[in-house]
Amino acid sequence: MIDTLKNSFTRLRRSSFFAGFVLFIIALVLNAALQGPASFFSVKSINTLFAKNAAFILVAIGQSLLLIAGTMDVSCGIQLALVNVVTIMTHQVWGIPFALSCLLGIGAAVLASIAVWVCCSVFRLPALLASYAMTYVIRGVNVMIMSVPQGKVPKEWYMAYDSQLFGLIPVSFFAVLGVLLICRFARKTPFGSHIYAVGGNPRNAFAAGISPVKVQLKAFLLKGVIVGIAGLCLTLMIAAGNPLQAEDYGIRSLSACILGGLGFGGWGSVASAVFGSGFFVLIQNSVYYFFSLLVRLIPGFSVSSYWQNFVSDVIIFLGLLMTIVTAKGRQEVLREGIVRQFKRIDYRKSPKESEGKEVTTHE
Amino acid sequence: MSSTKSTLTLGQRSKLFMQKSPARMAFLIALVLYAITVMISPGSLNASAIGSIVMLTLLLSIASAGQTIVLIGGGMDFGVGAVMSSAAILTTTIMNSQDGRFFPLLFAALAMGATVGLLNGICTVKIGLPPLIVTMAISNVITRMQYVLTQGSPMGYASPSFIKSVTSKLFGLQFLPSIILYGLIIIPLVFYLLNHSRFGKQVYLLGNNPVAARLNGVNINRIQILTYVFSGMFAAFAGMLGAAYMNAARCQIFDEYAYNSLIAVIIGGTSFSGGVGTYTGSIAGSLVMVVLSNLLTAMGLAQPTRNVFMGLIMIVLLIFYNREKKVRQ
Q1: Which of residues 152-211 of A touch B (CB under 8 A)?
Q2: What is the pLDDT along chain B (329 residues), one digit of tens a residue?
Q3: What is the ipTM of this complex?
Q4: What phi and psi values does residue B244 have, to the nearest 5 degrees?
Q5: A100 CA: distance to closest CA in chain B (Å)
Q6: Are B208 and A129 a contacting pair at CB < 8 A?
Q7: Which of A33, A167, A215, A241 reaches 20 to 30 Å from B252, CA-CA?
Q8: Does A125 sit within 8 Å of B148, measured CB to CB?
Q9: Nearest Cα residue to A255 out of A116, A67, A109, A101
Q10: Phi/psi of residue A107, each to 5°?
Q11: What share of chain A is helix, strand, coil (3-state, %, to 5)?
Q12: Which helix (H) or strand (E) holds A169?
């Protein structure tokens, strides 16, 4: 009995998401302590937490799939706004049923993902820059579809999103759970192993008979669907349309994944994304309660929301520092992956020399 | 090489030309884009329009000077925009429309830039965080700090004499804004740093092959941290000039310069993997960026269409310059 416990703990400690898991637990304890456990673990507070942040957690999950496949997409954030805009406008202008609009919204996210895939995998552009360029394109398309924030969601839809099943489990939780189950299922299929092979080393994968371009297409398609669901969560949460929202989700989801312990390419798991984004969410929540605690304790103390943002960003930065300390062995993999992300054709150098660059050593 | 050249197709030859001298190519692209601009709206061919192009190009060139050094050294700096914005806010706050405060300001801004650069460098090198993530996280913190310190609305204006020293026209000529004088100090300085100083040689060596650099006795950690410090200082100086150009500052005013400088540097032929690149290229790249945005304005496009165009053009430029190797070879 004790041995099995010990074994499972060792397994946990060696897993890729251990650093993220520790950070997540710290943030959870901190948040519960600041908010008061009774209030934090109440159905209402958990529901608000999930309803507000399901979109972000989902985007981080989608991003983690891409990172495993050795690519990335910083335009995820603005794709959420695309889903939002398409869903609201098709419902409002064409008068089609809302469920159909939702499907169209997911379709839009998939199309956007395919566009990013064409840039990153087919044209072989550096993923970071190409997807940043796509951010411009999608932002433009969003404003073309909806010029100013407007529109609304049918009442029964957003009421349903904000409710709990059996009076206990938030509906938004099921969105996250469903996506996690899909990922779990995908991991068992051949695609689940190919994605690691391609992310680890596309050349070797190609030599082994796996087409990197096709595998990355599948990863992007899956990410498109996940971002589509995330966009619907966002739409139902704010119950209105806004073409220019959530843009920073792209970058933030990327750092959430890194924080959770993912490297670039062929390494880590989806759990990292969940813990990393969970840490982000809980820290932001804790900072809010920390300041309201200060206001209550010190009479005459008032603080702007600027301070809250500042403190939570500082904590996220410190968190990044901490993960690297806790996961020192991973640095080499991470750095090599980064170098690979930004490789460029260079005819002036022989392949051997450019290979030498990857084994950067820093004492 | 020359014997095989005649058998190359036109496409291959143009590709070779581009890879041989990206700076020349970027100047050509800028010229073509400007010609299109003039064709679309002949009114844009006047001295003051050229003057504003010169002004913005120099501003972007100075901002991307540090980015060039960092990229050649094998790093990347996303903090340029945040440092510029902070320096602009420092400028308007310290000067507060009074003359005679230039040197305290210069000292404060450069110290701020150097501190941020040092932080970036140390976190990237000593702790081993990837440059992309760490510089972004730090620039987020700096941006939040701007809001905290100014309560969201920075006060004051740049001093009249400083504004004059940036925007007045030399010899009364419309196309010669006096920011050129600052450029005449900064640009030779960067050239000296990169091409004629020991530091510059070591940066190239470090970017090209860190292991070889270390084995040759280069203190690679120190050099890499120094590249970030220089980047912060150049960005801070560009932010000061930008504040004088804009007259007043607000939070996040120059944030887009982070990506713009990066793209300008890449168009100029500096490689992402380090060790290759010139500052001439970065100046040419800055010119392309400015002329491109001018062209989009001249076409009279609405903001959303402009965004789409900007993104597509960026992708096309990337296709020309930054494709990775094929998997199948």
Answers
A1: 202-203, 206
A2: 444 445 667 777 766 766 677 788 888 888 998 898 888 888 777 888 888 899 999 999 999 999 999 999 988 888 899 999 999 998 888 888 787 788 888 999 999 999 999 999 988 887 666 787 788 889 889 999 988 888 878 888 888 888 888 888 877 777 788 888 899 999 999 999 999 999 999 999 999 888 898 898 888 899 999 999 999 999 999 999 999 888 888 888 888 888 888 888 888 888 777 788 889 999 999 999 899 888 888 888 888 888 888 888 878 877 877 666 666 65
A3: 0.77
A4: -65, -35
A5: 27
A6: no
A7: A241
A8: no
A9: A67
A10: -60, -40
A11: 75, 0, 20
A12: strand A169-170
Q: For residue A259, what are its two tokens?
A: 């924080």
Q: Are A64 and A278 in contact (CB under 8 A)?
A: no
List chain A residues with CB under 8 Å of B314. 129, 132-133, 136
Q: Which residue has the tokens 């310190």?
A: B149
Q: Tell me the β-bridge partners of A169.
A: A165
Chain A residues with beta carbon closer than 8 angstroms to that of B262: 129
Q: Are B194 and B67 in contact (CB under 8 A)?
A: no
Candidates B128, B136, B318; nearest CB to A133: B318
Could you identify the residue written with the tokens 């000039």?
B241
Give the separation between CA A99 and CA A84, rounded to whole angstroms: 13
**Chain B contact present for A125, CB below 8 A:** yes
Q: Which of A123, A335, A342 sits opposite B323 (nearest CB)?
A: A123
A284 in reach of chain B (CB within 8 A) = no
